[in-house]
Each structure stands twice: as structure tokens, then as C-alpha cells.
DNA-binding protein
Amino acid sequence: MDAAQQEATARARELQRTWYGEPLGTLFRRLIDDLGLNQARLAGVLGLSAPMLSQLMSGQRAKIGNPAVVQRVQLLQDLARQVVDGSVSAAEATERMEEIKKSQGGSVLTNTTQTTNSSGAPTVKRVVREIQSLLRSVAAASEILEAADALAPTHPELAEFLRVYGAGRTSDAVAHYQSHQS
């Protein structure tokens, strides 16, 4: 690889760090390890071609262009955390990965039967996942926890919000959300 290619790869990885919290190679390798996948299976679950996944991992390509794929990445990250902490079994994880693979992702307008209740309002879980997704798109969990620690002495409620939504489990965030509704 020549100097120009190395510079382009480094620039792509830095953009990935900004957009996704870390280089995609690191993120995808962790998903592969935590979920017991290979690259081809990960590509299939995400809805990417194997060459595209490889380009994203190596830094030859910086951005995931399809918002549905970005959402699947976030769903897989949540699932991987649950597998690592033991709250989801390997068999359950395999089943959930099939659901993630079929998910359309993207806007609230897709798959309205799952994302809204009978009044047409988004479900609590959907709102919580959107908040989590937004927070996790601007910073890695470790950075969010660091920010929460910095805020805790003067703004404990904000610190709790960051911890729960930025680095916590979806079920805990749903409970937090529900406890703060009037």
C-alpha cells in the first residue's frame, strides 16, 4: 500500500470513529467474536455484500450508505452486549439475528405495525431505541460514560440519562423512560 492509500485509509478510519464511535473494522471484529460469526455471515445479517463489508473493515470505504444497515449494526451491538453479559443465550441470539436480518430499519414510517401503537404514536421501546441510537451515533459507550462521570457531581440526572441511554440495556432505558413520564 503506498503512502496515498495509507493516508486515505487513515482518513476513512477517522471518519468512521467520528460517525460510529470507532473504526468499523474494530466494531465488526467485536461483533464477529461476541456473536460467533464469520465475515460472510455478518455481511448476510447486515444486508451487505461480503466485498462491501471487507472494504468497510479495511478502511477502503468510510461510510455505510444504507440507514437500514446502520440500524442493523446498532441492533447487533445491543444483541452482542446481551450475549456477553449472559442475558441472551446463543440459540436466542441466532433467532434474533434472523429477525435483525429481516428488519427494514431506517425511518419510523417503515413496518408501522411494530413501531407504533393503536393510536399511531411510536411505542416506548421505539422511542428509547431512537434515543439510544442517536447517543451512540455521536460517541462510543466509554465516552458517554466518561461524560456521565464528569456531569455526575453537578448534574446527576443528566449523568443518569447518559448512563442509561448511552451505555445501558434497552430494557433499563425503557423502565427509566416510563418512570419519568407524567
